[in-house]
Every structure is written in C-alpha cells, then in structure tokens.
Amino acid sequence: MADAAAIRVQGLQKRYGDLRAVDGATFAVLPNEIYGIIGANGSGKTTTVECLQGLRRVDGGEVAVLGLDPGVHGAQLRGRIGSQLQSSALPERLKVWEALELFAALSPKRRDWRDLLAEWGLEEKRNAAFGDLSGGQQQRLFIALALVNEPEIVFLDEMTTGLDPQARRVAWDLIERVRERGATVVLVTHFMDEAEILCDRIAVFQRGTVIAEDTPRGLIEQFVGGGVVRFSTQVNELSFLDGTPGLERWERDGQRVTATGSGPLLAQVAARLVAHDIAPLDLRVELPTLDDVFVKLAGERSE
Amino acid sequence: MRAILRLTLVEMKLFVREPLALVFVFAFPLFVLFVLGGVFGNDVDLQDEENLRVWRGVGPADYYQPAYIGLVMASVGLITMPLRITSYREQGVLRRFEAAGVAKTAILGSQLLVGLGMMTVGAAAIVVASNLSQGTSLSESWGLTVPAYLLSAITFAVLGLMLGSVLPGSRAAQGAGMLLFFVMMFISGAGPPREVLANGMKGFSELLPLTHVILLLQDTWLAAEWDGTASLVVAAFLVVAGAVTLRFFRWE
Ligand SMILES: Nc1ncnc2c1ncn2[C@@H]1O[C@H](COP(=O)(O)OP(=O)(O)OP(=O)(O)O)[C@@H](O)[C@H]1O
Ligand SMILES: [Mg+2]
User: Helices (DSSP H) in chain B: which residue ranges?
Assistant: First the structure.
C-alpha cells in the first residue's frame, strides 16, 4: 500500500502570518476511494485541499498527489485533477454552456460537456448568465466544471452547500458514479449524513491536524461507542439485565427503561427480555451517528 | 496558444455584453473629438509661426487625429484593463481559472489581445469620425504608422496588465486608472497642445508614456517620420511594465 496511495500527506504545514492554518496534518488517500474531510470552521480543511492542488505554497511537510509534488508540478497536475473550490466565481455574464465549453476546451482530456449539463440539472439554464443563477445552480455548475476534464482525482470543497435536499441526493448519486468511472474523490463537508453515506474513510481535522482517521462506522465505534436501547415495560423486576454482554448501565424512569452499551446491544437485551417473557412493542436502538463523533471530537472551536 | 485564443474569444463576447465598459473605449474619445473639433476646427493660419509650432504644422483636427488614437489606447490600458483584471481577482474568477490549470501567461495573453482589439476598434472609430466631420487626412506613411501603432498599443495594453497585477482591488484600479488617464489626457497633447503648456508642465509630461506615444504616432502620421527617442521611451515603458507584470501578477 505504501506507494499505491493517490494522495500522501506527511506533516503538512501552512502558515498565514503567525497563524498556523495547517499544522502537521498527515493522511493518505487510496486510489478510487471517496475520502472525507470533516472538522470545525477554520480547522484547515480548505487550506489543506488547496495545498494538495498546488494553489497554495506549502511551508513544510511532504505532499504527493498522483506521485507528483503539487508545489513543483502544479500546472501538470491540475490537468489531471478536478477542482470545486469553496470560493471562486465566473464572469457575471458568462453563460452556463459557454463556461462548460470553455473549461472543456482548456483541459487536455475532456468529457462531453453536454452530458454534464444534463446530469447536473442545468439543461434549462444553459443560456442563463452565471450572475443570474441561484446559489445552488452556481454550485452545480462548479461541480460540473470540476468533472469536465475527466479527472483522476476530484476535490470537492463543501460541494452540496446551497443545494436543496433533492439536489443533494442527486449529487451523492452522481459522485458515486464519478467514483465508479475510476476517479478518486476528496470531499470536504459539514454534512455528517453526506460523509457517512458517501465516504469510505474520513479524516477529522482539528487545529490543522488530523486527530482521527477511519471508516464512518469505525469512527463512531471508536469515539462514541455502541448505542442506547430503549423500551418500556410494566414489569418491575429487571435485575436479570445486569451482566448482559456489552451493557454498561441501565436505568428506569417509571415504565421507561434506557440501557447504554456497545456491541450488538439490541440483540442481547432483546434475548434477555424474551427469555423473561417480556416483549415490549417499543423496543428500539438509537445508534450514534457521525454527528455525535463530530460534536465530541471537532466541536471544540479551532480559533 | 489555444488557451489564449479560447479565452480571448470568450472575453470579447463578454465585453460586447457589457455596454458600460464600451463607453469609455468609444464614446469618450469621440465626445472629446467633437467638442475640441467644434472649438478649433481644422483651419488655422499656418503662415503664422505660432500656429505652426503649436499644431505641429497641420490643422488642429489633423493634429488631434493621432493624438486621439493614443487617447483610446490610454483609456483601454489605464482604465478598462486594470478594472477587468482586479475585478476578476476580487471575485475569484482568476482562482477558478488557476484551479483549471490555465497558465498565467494565457490569462495575461488573452487580456492583452482583448485590449489590443478594443484599442483597434476605438482607433478606427476615431479615424472615421474625424474624416467625416473634419475631412482630416490619412497617414502619410502606413509603413511607419503601423509599427508605431503596434508598439504604442502593446505598451499601453501591457501597462494595463501591470496595473491589474499590482493594484490591490477594483476600487484602487478605478481610482488610479481615472487619475492617470485624466492627467495624461490633459498634459500629454491629447487635450491642449503641449506647446501651450507652462514649462514645468511640459517637462513633467515628458515622464508620461502617452506623451511619447502621441509624438511617435503624429510623426509617422503627419510627416512620415520616425521619432527615434519617443519610440525608445515607449519601448522602455513596455519592457518595464512587462517585467513588473510577470513578477507581481497574483491569482488572488
Ligand atoms: N488567505 C488567507 N489569509 C489569511 N488567513 C487565512 C486565509 N485563508 C484561511 N485563513 C485562516 O486559516 C485558517 C484555516 O482556514 P480554512 O479555510 O482552511 O478552514 P476550513 O477548515 O476550510 O474552514 P471552513 O469550514 O469554515 O471552510 C482559518 O483560521 C482562516 O481564518
Ligand atoms: Mg473551508
């Protein structure tokens, strides 16, 4: 695996004056992976992906993207990667189709931009000027532009910010398809559902470093653990719950019972209940989500 | 090269969609032409030594024709181009192009070509308008005027790239551009002839590129002569502005 990585970042440093925006970030992205980057505002996510694209000069550490140093081979690299920046713009009066045609013409390799126009729901707006598009439509145009050169790696920085819920789901499907076409995807996002659904692995940024890196499930298990099982019963004697594998504690509040623990807790609790002839209708488990990981790990403000 | 041409075509389309940007390029010099044409006409007594000196041996309208061509170059190079480039930087358009792997020479090259194109259309409008309204003469020597025109236009276009590269934002570009433009317009020979300026002013005007551009153009146009000094000064501006541009151009 050592040299198979699509992106390798070792001890990346980037300062703005006295501010250490990125301070020792280390991670690797595998080929064809959808790799998520999450973290609080100002934790250095955008700075990091901009360094990976050679858009910012690195102050320290080592970066290799497709085996190349973006600081040295930036121009060559940018022909092979796609980029949707967190903040950028197009000329106000440039039309949607003109933008796609222009950026297709500017890249060494290209997809038919008309397909992208249709896929990203911009057909109706093909003759609209960039300045007249809604925020979400501009965003979709930027994603389409990031894909027009058939990139080997595509960087998406807050791709679905500004998209309506329907458009977000469409975007997820399309990104899944981009990966099926063979690309590697780096996705910076504040939407934990998006990260959980799309990403194979996720890096959690805090103050310019990666404080955790794992699969979404792995992060949840590692940092917030199993979950909470809830049910209600009129039976008073529940001491048989003690010693359930994985159970950490349980408490009752009137008829309502809450059991906290990890592992396959729901199944274990259910087995014991059924063995004691208790079959609550409302037995359910609440599994933690990536949201809980975020709140626990990255919720701390980075400024 | 392909990228330059692509960007140039798109950029030209965008300019046509922006009527306000065109005002300064065409309307303003034409406006000045009609006002000053109305004041001076094209008939002065050329037996009079004073007139001969002030108007460089021709009627005022003939004197102004090449001067206004220089004025068009100045308005594109000092106002239009810096404003365009700084706005693109401010809005994040340049970043978008940078991320798409567009070389800075392609951005600069396309802006240069668009600037030259606008200057040329503006210059043609001046020549047509002064011919129709004042019956001015065409160049005495196209063989000298064309190279003089190219040298001057490229120099002002590169000055535009330089201002766009070094000025921090579009507000600064607007302010600095207007200031430079009006100073040059009034003392470089496109307003009052330089011979009527006070000596100090006249000396100061020698520091301005438009002064030398106008001398160069007038000499080729009116007398089929090549002003070696003026052309060297213009070329020096070109070299310095080009070097500063390449050194200081920023994407954001
Ligand atoms: N061009 C810049 N000049 C100076 N400081 C900057 C610049 N860009 C970012 N910073 C600072 O660097 C730090 C990291 O910013 P960055 O944009 O990388 O954060 P982020 O993780 O992408 O945040 P967000 O979630 O808000 O997009 C912040 O404190 C920010 O203020
Ligand atoms: Mg960001």
Answer: 2-16, 19-22, 28-40, 49-54, 60-75, 81-91, 93-99, 104-134, 142-166, 170-187, 199-205, 209-223, 228-248
